[in-house]
Amino acid sequence: MWFASPDEVRERLSAVDYLADDAVATSVFLAGALGKPLLTEGPAGVGKTQLAKAVAQATGARLIRLQCYEGLDEARALYEWNYKKQLLRIQADDDAWDDIFSEEFLLERPLLKAIRSEEPTVLLIDETDKADVEVEGLLLEILSDYQITIPELGTISAARRPYVVLTSNATRELSEALKRRCLYLHLGYPTPERERDIVLAQVPGLPAAVAEQLARTVATLRELELKKSPSIAETIDWARTLLALGRTDLDEAVVGQTLGVVLKHNSDQVRAAKELGLAARP
Amino acid sequence: MSGLADRHVGFVRALREAGLPVSPAENVDAAAALTVIDLAERETLREAYAATLVKRPAHRPAFDTFFDLWFPPVISGPYGEEPPRTGDLDHAGVPELRERLADLLMGEPGEPGDPALREFARAMVGRFGRVPAAAGRQSWFSFAVLRALSPETLTARLLGRMLEERGGLPEKIARQKISRNIAKFQDEVAADVRRRIAEESGVEKIARSTVKPPIDQVDFLRVTKAELAQLRREVYPLARRLAARLTIRQRLGHRGRLDFRRTVRASLPTGGVPLETRLRPKRPHKPELVVLCDASDSVSTFSHFTLLLTFALREQFTKVRAFAFVDTVDEITTMFAPGADVLDAISRMAQDADISRFGRTDYGRVFEMFAERYGDAVGPKTSLLILGDARSNYQPPALDTLRRLAAQARHAYWLNPEPHGQWDTGDSVATGYGAVVAMRECRNVAQLAAFIQDLA
A19: closest CA among A133, A190, A270? Predict the structure, then answer.
């Protein structure tokens, strides 16, 4: 068992500075209790990857990360045969044809490593939507049965079920088969109250009043129709910026000068300046 | 325990009936989750169901409505216990109640909702929400509650209390907070009204009538203002998602020219024996797009959204030119330049473009004018896309001109936001135009996305 109750999840995650709401606490708890992978989806920068890291840190488990990208294949996700070593063995010993497919020549990649790990492990499969559709098929066996089939060796089952977290930015719909096997958690933008607490936890030394103003301002920005709404990560950057500048109050001038930290499209900045009545930047 | 099992099964069945896909495996997962959580914690129960059953954010609002109906927070009536009342809410006068509401709206509604606000909303529904509906019958309505208390009119008073001086950024922020709290109060009232109706006339009955379809299923022509804003916010994520899917499809070719360099590189692990070949990616086919869109009021939400999406998808097309019309036609390409603001573009289109003389749609005249003025925009590489309801106010349709235009183009499509059943009724010439240009029904985002995928 990873956690005893959703309340315990909340406590232990907040000990590592991750503030969990009801949705996060319940689904993190269920993922552990039911032994199912947890799929977190949401816009960039709301703490999806951070959640996996926080779970690993809170439980003292090892974190194994598989970063997905276009063109990711079996050889880099699961396992690969060490061709060079195999060639050398064959050249050294002509009768070695049978032994070159054994443990000795197997290169572990993140998924196999997580399955074979003896200690508690958190497996983070990051940005699943960036990988090609075939990779999802590859994941299905691992996610439902926690086992990997290597044709030359047979099926390897998990020594100890890893805690699996998948993240996705929803740039494409993941397949139904994958979603069905996972618990689903949608992480959206937090309420201003929660965002204030997150900022305070992440940026020690920031006065509470500034954090409050900051969270409210960001919430107002998100209400505007922008190309890219500011994420929590950007709010935190903004807080750090203010701290570095030594500002203790968030007035219109300061917002106007530092808007570039949270809004990264010119049209968004123009729009925000107009809607919030800020002075146009020179 | 069997009571819980029945409730679970009924709940899942209701979700399925509302179009939320719940597979048997997910159903079992949800039941398994019920055995490990504390059932007395309502929010935990809600999230446990959400995590196991709801795998798309678009389905979440409908799910929440159902959950509140099936697992109501309180029960009133003969079997329920009336929650203890704080203060004298049953007899206080309206000004006093408004004062109470103002205090609550100043507060911070935390994540699970402010219990005091919820309690107050319930009490107010109990007091004001009961309205005679039909002869001899009474029902619950939220408008009665909101009319009695009119929370919006409290805004000025609240602003005065929160701020020392008005104006600028602080006022914006305060306003945002107040309107969020008011929306929260309205939601609480609506939820309690639904709960009371469900208690009186059964859950199944109300569930069918109150749950809204997910946003990508909303009919373009019936879209509300709030939904339109939500749709516009969806444009960029949707365009990104579509673009990703289109590029993946283009890359998936298994035939093509051999990429010699990468094949040799791939042969190194096998000692120079090229076991696997590598192919050059196919050159993507990028059509030029000419969009001709009806901007009359009857289809404006549809054409705006479609235009925005095509412009957001600019990287998928080598060239996009857009024309808008009511009874004359004008080019609007520059108004949707990259980086241009979405809302500005729409309002500028309404103001600056010369598209309306008499304000009555006239497709025939528009096609004639288009062929005459911009005929050279349509060439052999162009896909011609016409957006409109084909309702031409009984004017001559100019089918021959359209036929000529369609023949010049590589492809020609017509997207009609009206349901198929209404085509050819009244002044619609859908079949007439449909015989010249392939016409497709396009009533919601899902259908539009499917069409764009076919196009590119």
Answer: A190
Establish if B325 belongs to a structural domain: yes
Cα separation values, B27 from A158, B5, B23, B63, Å: 26, 11, 6, 14
User: Is A111 part of a structural domain of the chain?
Assistant: yes
* B300 or B38: which leads in pLDDT: B38
Q: What is the ipTM of this complex?
A: 0.88
Angle, helices B24-36/B42-53, rounded to nearest 10 degrees: 150
How many domains, in total, are found in chain A? 2
- For residue A263, the enclosing domain spans 192-276
Answer yes or no: do B321 and B416 share one domain: yes
Mean pLDDT value across residues B321-345: 78
Instruction: Select from A115, A129, A130 the least CA-distant residue to A70.
Output: A130
Q: Are A60 and A132 found together in one domain?
A: yes
- Asked if residues A169 and A43 have their Cβ atoms less than 8 Å apart, the reply is yes
Same domain flag for A70 and A170 = yes
Question: Residue A250 domain-assigned?
Answer: yes
Nearest to A27 among B47, B57, B233 (CB): B47
Which phi and psi angles does A68 have, rounded to 5°? -90, 145
CB pairs under 8 A between A and B: 129
For residue A271, report the phi and psi dihedrals to the nearest 5 degrees.
-65, -45
Question: Is B208 contained in some domain?
Answer: no
pLDDT of residue A226: 80
Q: Does residue A41 surpass a pLDDT of 60? A: yes
Residues of chain B contacting residue A267, judged by C-beta atoms under 8 Å apart: 339-341
Chain A contacts of B24, Cβ < 8 Å?
A: none
A132 shares a domain with A10: yes
Residue B348 and residue B406 in one domain: yes
- Which of B413 and A40 is assigned the larger pLDDT? A40
pTM for the model stands at 0.77
**CB neighbour burial string for A38-69, b if at least 16 within 10 angstroms, e if fewer:** bbbbbbebbbbbbbbbbbbbbbebebbbbebe
Phi and psi at residue B146, to the nearest 5°: -70, -30
Does residue B236 sit in the same domain as residue B376? yes
Residue A282 placed within a domain: no
Tell me if B51 and A193 make a contact (CB, 8 A cut-off): no
Same domain flag for B415 and B430: yes
The alpha carbon of residue A62 is apart from the nearest alpha carbon of chain B, in Å, by 25
Are residues B398 and B447 part of one domain? yes
User: Who among A26, A133, A191 is closest to B111 (CB)?
Assistant: A191
How many structural domains are present in chain B? Answer: 4
Task: Give the range among A201-215, B227-241, B289-303 with minimum mean pLDDT.
Answer: B227-241
Q: Indicate yes or no: CB of A23 within 8 angstroms of CB of B51.
A: yes
Domain residues for the domain of B262 are 258-282
Tell me how close the Cα of B273 comes to any Cα of chain A, in angstroms: 12
Q: Are residues A134 and A225 in the same domain?
A: no
- Angle value at C-alpha A256, between A254 and A258, nearest 5 degrees: 65
Q: Is the CB of A252 inside 8 Å of chain B's CB atoms?
A: yes
Tell me, what amino acid is at A74?
E
